[in-house]
Specification:
This protein has 333 residues and is mostly beta strands. The protein is 10% helix and 33% strand. It has five helices and 19 strands. Strands 8, 9, 10, 11, 14, 15, 16 and 17 form an eight-stranded antiparallel beta sheet that branches. The longest helix is centred in the middle third of the chain and has 15 residues.
């Protein structure tokens, strides 16, 4: 009892507190401040301040956050994404809102690449376009199969998938000067894009899970798939190897029937050319992949099970990574 700090008050700061629980009583108000130097006062706080952590009045709800205060100047929320370890953000959604109720939303990311760790950010912004603090979640993205997406539909290929020979455009010309042994290579454009071909068996998820062939359904699915491929909309082609291309389908969608099963199942194939960068904001915006109204219920391809979509779902509760390549993100405001 002879230490030089004997008369000093006992330390009471506990920095590791991240939760609190109220039990066995009836509470009218609960307020927590992050400033430990504020003098005790019996008056119930009514305003949210910079020091406020929780403020619950228990008036027909158990809300303890500051949504009702912060939404007065809130103009909307942006959802952004970047590859972990990189600097630039890609904006996927810009969601305007007029009141706090609109903060309850779900959005889907069809543009995720397999085998990549992403950081997703929920970014509130004010009426003067000032962005508030980024709320960030880290997500591992992975899925199986090959997926062909448009802004309003998505299909999966899992059987019989193959790529034809690909090439990268490098348009050049040769100029042969008079008297010169060697030509001069001329390249007047910066054109450099990937092109190739793809083929896959058109099987719905229901058919993939069935030991028998439903000829009527399989035939209808095959032709619906071909029409989807040839609808002249820009597509996103991605696969389990991490390839991802923003493409346009060239010429026709071709159908080849499997004679071994009485033509009950067929393949679809097509040639394509890369027409933009799948990570470029302007290319995705011009292609219609930004602010897309996609939901599995309304936009899932016919006979396709939404539970097998290779999407990142912002706002849903569960994730089974072994069987379901859909990734769920929950943000805390």
């Amino acid at each position: 009892m002879s230490d030089e700090s004997l008369l000093d008050p006992s330390p009471t700061t506990i920095s590791a507190i991240d939760s609190v629980q109220l039990t066995n009583a009836i509470f009218d108000h609960f307020n927590v401040l992050g400033n430990g130097t504020v003098e005790y006062d019996t008056e119930i706080p009514s305003d949210w301040t910079a020091d406020t952590i929780l403020n619950a009045d228990f008036e027909d709800n158990i809300n303890a956050g500051n949504i009702s205060y912060s939404t007065e100047d809130l103009a909307g929320v942006r959802i952004k994404r970047r590859i972990k370890g990189t600097f630039s953000w890609l904006m996927l959604y810009d969601i305007p809102m007029d009141d706090a109720e609109e903060l309850n939303f779900v959005r889907y990311d069809l543009l995720n690449q397999n085998g990549v760790t992403y950081e997703y950010a929920l970014v509130p912004y004010l009426k003067d376009n000032t962005e508030c603090a980024y709320i960030i979640q880290e997500v591992d993205s992975y899925f199986n199969g090959v997926f062909l997406c448009s802004p309003d539909s998505l299909v999966k290929f899992y059987a019989g998938v193959s790529y034809g020979g690909g090439s990268v455009a490098n348009n050049t010309g040769l100029f042969e000067p008079l008297g010169s042994k060697y030509p001069v290579v001329v390249s007047n454009a910066n054109t450099q894009y990937y092109s190739g071909s793809f083929s896959g068996t058109a099987l719905s998820m229901a058919q993939l899970m069935s030991p028998t062939v439903n000829r009527l359904n399989s035939s209808a699915y095959l032709h619906t798939m071909a029409n989807f491929i040839a609808d002249k909309k820009i597509k996103l082609l991605k696969d389990w190897n991490g390839n991802i291309w923003l493409i346009a389908v060239l010429d026709k969608a071709k159908i080849s029937y499997n004679n071994n099963v009485g033509m009950g199942i067929g393949n679809v194939s097509f040639d394509f050319a890369e027409i933009g960068d799948a990570y470029n904001q302007n290319d995705l915006l011009n292609s219609g992949f930004i602010n897309i109204p996609f939901t599995p219920v309304n936009n899932a391809f016919p006979a396709h099970n939404p539970q097998n979509n290779p999407m990142i779902n912002i706002g849903s509760p569960t994730h089974n990574a072994d069987y379901n390549p859909q990734i769920d993100i929950d943000f805390d405001l």
